[in-house]
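Researcher: Here's a chain I'd like modeled. Treat it as a single chain, no partners, no ligands.
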Amino acid sequence: MSGLGFLLIVVVITLVGSLIVWLRHRKPTHFMSSVDDFQREMDALGRPPGAKGSRRNRSGNGARPDGPDGGR
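Model: Modeled as a single isolated chain. Structure tokens:
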């Protein structure tokens, strides 16, 4: 095989690989993609699942259950 044939094979493989990488990592363009991005941002900014109400102690005595005395 000549040097030109080898170079052509390498260029074709490089172009195909580059096309595959570009297709896999491009930004989605369907009409709901911006809505999906916004919802993902809002979910990231929201409370963690299972968190209810505020983190304040509701007993009213001012002791924190996770304090040094264990809330006793």
